[in-house]
Amino acid sequence: MTENRPFRCLLPLLVAGAFMMPAPLMAQDQPPPAPKPAAKPKPKPKPPVAQDAPAAAANPAAQATLLGQFGDWGAYAAKPNGRQVCFALAKPTSSEDSPANRRTAANAVYMFISTRPSEKVRDEVSILVTGYEFKPSADAGLAIGGTNFTMYTQKDGAWVKNPGDEGRMIESMRKSPELVIKATTSKGTHTTDRFSLKGIAQALDRVAQECSQ
Q1: Farthest CA pair distance, the chain
Q2: Which of 19, 66, 102, 163 is the most exposed place for a label (fewest CB within 10 A)?
Q3: Phi-psi bin for 3: left (phi > 0), alpha (psi -120 to 50), beta?
Q4: Entry pTM
Q5: Strand partners, 27
Q6: How far apart are alpha carbons 20 and 11 in whole angstroms?
Q7: 204, 197 in Cβ contact below 8 A?
Q8: Cα three-residue angle 180-60-53, rounded to 5 degrees
Q9: Which of 184, 168, 92 is nearest to 135 (CA)?
């Protein structure tokens, strides 16, 4: 896991651009709002408390190119600040809240698997949420089949807590049909987001082809 604050600031804008692609190319029917910028933090962060409120729409400053849609995952490429970035991207196929219905359509959730050749970063897993933030100092849990992984959170982002787990996580994703992420928002809402893994292997292969190191 490599810290890259400039890329984390630009990634939400790339997502906004990616989801401005024509509807037939996207796995989801309803276009999400543009995520707000977020810098990648250091481990064990202590972010400020935020509100579960809809995110404001924003015009993207950069747009990613869709390399291909593979099942529920898209493969994208972009060059923020002239540096090549490739990533696989998906949204949840279902979401649940406890108490119920605390999040709205404005509270989009994205999962990224990013490769940045200039930083020698390959298959970095992260989560970005919009319109709300995670509970300070509370980890999120990611489950693939019977294997559980821990993700640390800060503000509107989550990353694999143990960098050594990322390789096992990616391998599990390639072989499994679904993953589940459970977290807690800054207002105490318990969230469950399920991601289909249909097409992820092909999307990751396309990302690797485009952003070979």
Answers
A1: 45
A2: 163
A3: beta
A4: 0.75
A5: none
A6: 14
A7: no
A8: 55
A9: 184
